[in-house]
């Protein structure tokens, strides 16, 4: 009986202790829980914002640039600001994709050159646009902001979003250009040549200039007999003059031509090279994008025309 009585006393004491503990600790627990629930949404929001704050390091500049500000500078430099707003939006999406792919989401620097993407800072834009600065700045900025965070994916991966000024009626494949066959960089029709005033250009060389630039010693008759082999998009694959062969890309570089779609003629004692289009021809044609926009196409339709079987998505914050 004494043992039972003692056990009952222990149970009572334990119960009283538990009750007092609950009175003391529960308000503290509830307070901590409430404070946490109030802070969580804001903390989460800040964390997401920080994760989305991407910056780009432009070679030659000490201060990193916010991604969207960088894209504004690229669109302003790479596409005429008087182009259709949908074309400017398409350029913004392509430029954003290109820089994120090239720099591994801002981990490395990018050159502000035609080999990568040209970039104009606000002072350069103001100098170039002069009296139209406010109008063009607002137009370009609006095009970039309306596509904020949009990128182009193929099978879940960022694409190499190459673009050029104007095609020759058909864009170039990545395989023809570099030997690498990318499924989203295939030839597509592009009618920009109908809209570009400077679609066809001529460059004239004396025989001496020709031989100096190409490091040859050919005669004018040999130039007249030049053999040109073209690929499936009408661009020059190889040129043979006087027994020496060049690729179309090499000839373009050596003679500083606007594209690899060219013809060679001898006229009035000089060599005349007539070039069609402007740029390497791969990916989106900027004049073609403007032509499509003038005909009612949206930025997304332009992107999906030039970059086949791709998806446009928002940058995922991690």
Automatic annotation (TrEMBL):
A single cellular component GO annotation: outer membrane-bounded periplasmic space
GO biological process terms held by the UniProt record: sporulation resulting in formation of a cellular spore
UniProt keywords, alphabetically: Membrane, Transmembrane, Transmembrane helix
Entry keyword Membrane: yes
Residues that span the membrane, as ranges: 12-30
Pfam families for this protein: SpoIID (PF08486)
Domain Sporulation stage II protein D amidase enhancer LytB N-terminal residue range list: 65-154
NCBIfam families for the chain: SpoIID_LytB, spore_II_D
PANTHER family: AMIDASE ENHANCER, N-ACETYLMURAMOYL-L-ALANINE AMIDASE-RELATED
Entry protein name: Stage II sporulation protein D
């Amino acid at each position: 009986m004494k043992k039972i009585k003692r056990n009952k006393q222990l149970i009572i004491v334990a119960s009283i202790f538990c009750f007092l503990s609950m009175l003391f600790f529960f308000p503290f627990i509830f307070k901590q829980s409430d404070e946490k629930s109030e802070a969580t949404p804001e903390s989460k929001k800040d964390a997401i914002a920080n994760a989305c704050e991407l910056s780009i390091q432009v070679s030659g500049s000490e201060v990193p640039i916010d991604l969207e500000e960088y894209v504004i500078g690229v669109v302003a430099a790479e596409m005429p600001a008087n182009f259709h707003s949908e074309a400017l939006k398409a350029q913004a999406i392509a430029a954003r994709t290109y820089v994120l792919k090239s720099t591994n989401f801002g981990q490395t620097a990018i050159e502000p050159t035609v080999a990568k993407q040209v970039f104009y800072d606000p002072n350069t834009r103001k100098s170039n646009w002069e009296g139209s600065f406010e109008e063009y700045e607002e137009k370009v900025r609006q095009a970039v902001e309306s596509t904020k965070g949009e990128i182009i994916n193929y099978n879940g991966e960022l694409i190499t979003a190459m673009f050029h000024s104007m095609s020759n009626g058909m864009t170039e494949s990545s395989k023809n250009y570099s030997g690498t066959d990318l499924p989203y960089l295939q030839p597509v029709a592009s009618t920009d040549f109908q809209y570009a005033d400077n679609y066809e250009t001529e460059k004239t060389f004396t025989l001496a200039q020709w031989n100096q630039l190409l490091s040859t010693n050919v005669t004018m008759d040999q130039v007249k007999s030049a053999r040109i082999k073209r690929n499936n998009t009408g661009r020059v694959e190889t040129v043979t003059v006087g027994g020496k062969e060049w690729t179309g890309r090499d000839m373009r570089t050596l003679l500083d031509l606007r594209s690899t779609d060219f013809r060679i003629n001898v006229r009035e004692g000089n060599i005349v090279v007539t070039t069609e289009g402007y740029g390497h021809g791969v990916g989106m044609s900027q004049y073609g994008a403007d032509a499509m926009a003038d005909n009612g196409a949206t930025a997304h339709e332009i992107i999906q025309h030039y970059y086949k079987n791709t998806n446009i998505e928002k940058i995922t914050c991690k």
